[in-house]
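Database export, one record per block. Field names are fixed; values are copied verbatim from the stored entry.
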Amino acid sequence: MPLSELELAARVLQDRSQPVRLDAWRRRCLEGLTTPARMVLSLIPPVGWSPTFLAPSVAGTAEEVLEHVQAVPRSRIRAELAAIAEHQPVPSWARHLADDTELRRQIHRGLTSLYATLLEPYWTNLTGHFTADRTVRMRQFLNGGVEYLLAQANPRWMRWNPPVLDIRMANGVEYDLRLEGQGILLVPSLWGTRTIVDNDAVPQPTVTCPVLPDQPLRHLTALVREPCPAKPADAVAALLGGTRAAVLNAIATHPGCTTKELAALIGVASASASEHATTLRAAGLVQTLRHRNSALHSPTPLGVALLNEGTRART
């Protein structure tokens, strides 16, 4: 959900209470903001209400979701901005947004520009962290079921009190999400440290939780220092062996597998599987997370791309 993540990144960009280690990223982003992008930022305060039509809970590429924003009905724009105005000031120009076609085009250009500046350089790395987070969540579900999964999702800001999910929002509002048999969609975020709920999302409410709850900002800091993934030429050259190729393929086919499971899949000793996974990780093709006493291996986007290229080369 790229625009949901963009909304959170926009809040972090403006929130001076965040650690100083993000200041370099802030300066770089602020210098590149266009006038339409700054208009969008004026609708997304660091803390407070923002229009959900700017950040729909829709999965897809950034281009696909931006097209979805273009199709938002004028009645929804008008209703959401009126509801926000009851809680906080909105820019004077926003009163004309629903009925001004050119103004809506500017907001669309602003969203596109904001995504290109704040997220696009890091999106490949971000999706790798999302995949790794999903691996941990699935292990939590398998080990303890839904109740354990929800209890661990964001324990500082969210508490599972059956049948209610008690959530403390960033603006201090206490929110009770009553599931009553209705499912929810957990959305990992690297920019959001608190839980965010979209109860109007279709077909089910979405609940945004931080990835890797141990130290999400540590991973975020690494990303903003290195916008593009490194080119691991030497490490990739070391993959030109049948066993390592089999290890990468097994991890891609069984994301989230433990070292012991990986060894069984390819028929080698656990120590050998661990060594090969370490080399793949150094090449940026695999990501490994510690969960309890296990190492969980998942492919990175670069690893998947390499396998896909290899498949196309053989056909």
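Remark 1: The first helix runs from residue 2 to 14.
Remark 2: The longest strand covers residues 286-291.
End of record.
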